[in-house]
Structures are given as structure tokens and as C-alpha cells.
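Good day; I would like, with your permission, to put a structural problem before you. The record follows directly beneath this note:
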Amino acid sequence: MDPSVLAGDRALLGRSSTAERVADILRSRIAEGYLPPGSKLSEEIIGTALGVSRNTLREAFRLLTHERLLVHELNRGVFVRVLTVQDVNDIYQVRRLIECAAVRGLGVPPYDLSAAEAAVAEGDRAAADGSWLQLGTANIHFHYAVVALAGSRRVNEVMRAVLAELRLVFHAMDNPRGFHEPYLERNREILASLQEGDKVRAELLLTSYLSDAEKQLIQRYSELLPA
């Protein structure tokens, strides 16, 4: 882990540094792929980088452990969690419940799709640059933007945690380009349906997208963790 990445986040804390805000930063770094599964989190390195006390950092660790992003191992320390096949199943069940319901519950178009459009554009730039880690992040941003159309702060908070867990799952894929790149076009198709005000088609596309992604990830996990 490069402490300079976190040192740049120190300005986000401001004077009112709290464990929740530290947790927000670490959650974002996990969601962006900078802290892969199995990484050990050093209190000294992270605390120094962010300029926070060990007590504040430990409370942030506790919050993220409750969200299933971290795990505390006795006499060893705190680690980014390594997920299981059962976790993948559960994450996609939650995604279907939240994402599909968000689209289904949309009111009368037009919808404010600026964040979703920005996420697709972000994905296009990442693909053009051959930055497949960033493309995975752009895909996550797109689906968060879709859920945000529901206009619920609580739903957004739940989705943020779920998508951070999802990033941990993505690390299992040995061919990130082969996995992420096809879904950029599928995001574009979902966006086009929403731009046309066709939320029924958008939900069908989204349901198919989630089903296919889940199958790919479970297949990969089955290869890594044979019965």
C-alpha cells in the first residue's frame, strides 16, 4: 500500500476529523481497487498518512468491519476481507433488489441522467487508455448513479457499501479487460433506454447484466476455491 495515496486524502478530513469520515475515505479506496483483498492495514502508516489518532482509526476499522469490508484477526491485525462464493451470491441478490427496484420505481421521464452519463464517459476514457482497473471503477460509478435516481440517501449509503464489497470480488478476475470491457457497452444500452424514458427495457437489460456478471464471478471463484 502506497501511503502517499492516503496522504492526499488528508485534506478531506478538515478540522472535524471523525471515524466516520476516515471510514468513508478507506471505503472509497477499497471501492477504487487500491486496497485489494488480503491487504494488511497498518495503523501507523494509515494514521500518519491521514493525520489521525489510533483511536479514531480503530473506530473507523470497526465500522468497516461491521460492513464486512475488513476483518480483524487476533494477534495479526486488520486485513481487507477476502470474499467467498456465498458473498458473491449475496451481493448480487442485494444488487438485484436495489438496482432493479430503483429503475422500476422511476417516475415520469425525463430523468436526471447526468451522473450516469458521466460514468459512461469515464468508462470510455478508461478503455481508451487501457486502464482496466479504472474501467471497473467507472462501471461501479454507473450503477451507483442508477440507484441514486431513486433519490434516497439511505439507499445510496447501502449501495455504496455493497459496491465497495463488489470491488473486492472483482480482484479475483485474472483478465480484467475481458471482464469489464463488455459491460461498458451494456451500461451504454441501459443509459440509452433511460434516456428514451423506457424504464421497462432498462430494467430487463439490468437484470440480464447482473445475472451474467454473477455467473462469471461465481465461475471464477469456483476455479480459485475448488470444492
Observations:
- Residues 199-224 form the longest helix (26 residues).
- The longest strand covers residues 70-73.
